[in-house]
Amino acid sequence: MWTCPECGRIFGKVKQPHSCRQISPEQHFKNKEKAKVLFDYLFKQITSEIGECKIISLPCCIHIFGRNDFLAVLPKKDRLEIRFGLNRKLDTPGLRQCVPVSAKIFKNCLDITEKEEINKELIGWLSEAYHLTDK
């Protein structure tokens, strides 16, 4: 693991190329009030059910870091798009996309449109993503 001394982001490779540019999370939520409510609720559930996390807001999206970068959140006007890695492809009707990122890891992409979708099943998947590198 390597932590960039300039921006504090954590990477799997030493001196991994990246941009240190960050923006405030509020910029992502401009005119996206519903997404902000969903994000606040999701983050609260993650920190209370999974573990301590920090938010790193980049121009492209918001990253949630636990032990590692385990969740990307892209606020949209009426929803949150979330992306997280698992060692399997999810089999769920809400799956927007699943992309293999390596021989063992799949990036699963879902949309959250209502608080009720932030349930035990979703938190379970995010817990798997949070702990994926523990294995």
Helix/sheet category: alpha+beta
Mean pLDDT score: 91
Q: Which strand order do you get reading across the main beta sheet?
A: 3-4-5-6-8-7
What's the domain count?
1
How is the quaternary structure best described? single chain
| Annotation field: number of helices | 3
Biggest beta sheet attributes: 6 strands, antiparallel
How many beta-strand runs?
Answer: 8
Strand content: 25-35%
- Give the CA-CA distance, first to last residue: 15 Å
Helix-strand topology string? EEHHEEEEEEH
Question: What is the 3D shape?
Answer: globular
**Helix fraction?**
10-25%
Low-confidence stretches: none
Task: Return Rg in Å.
Answer: 15 Å
List the helices and strands and how they pair.
Blueprint: E1 2-3, E2 10-11, H1 25-28, H2 33-49, E3 54-57, E4 62-65, E5 69-76, E6 79-86, E7 95-100, E8 106-112, H3 120-131
Antiparallel strand pairs: 1-2, 3-4, 4-5, 5-6, 6-8, 7-8
Explain what the structure shows.
- This protein is α+β, with helices and mostly antiparallel strands.
- The chain has one domain.
- It has 3 helices and 8 strands; from the N terminus they run ββααββββββα.
- The strands form 2 sheets. The protein has a 6-stranded antiparallel β-sheet.
- The longest helix has 17 residues.
- The chain is globular, with a radius of gyration of 15 Å.
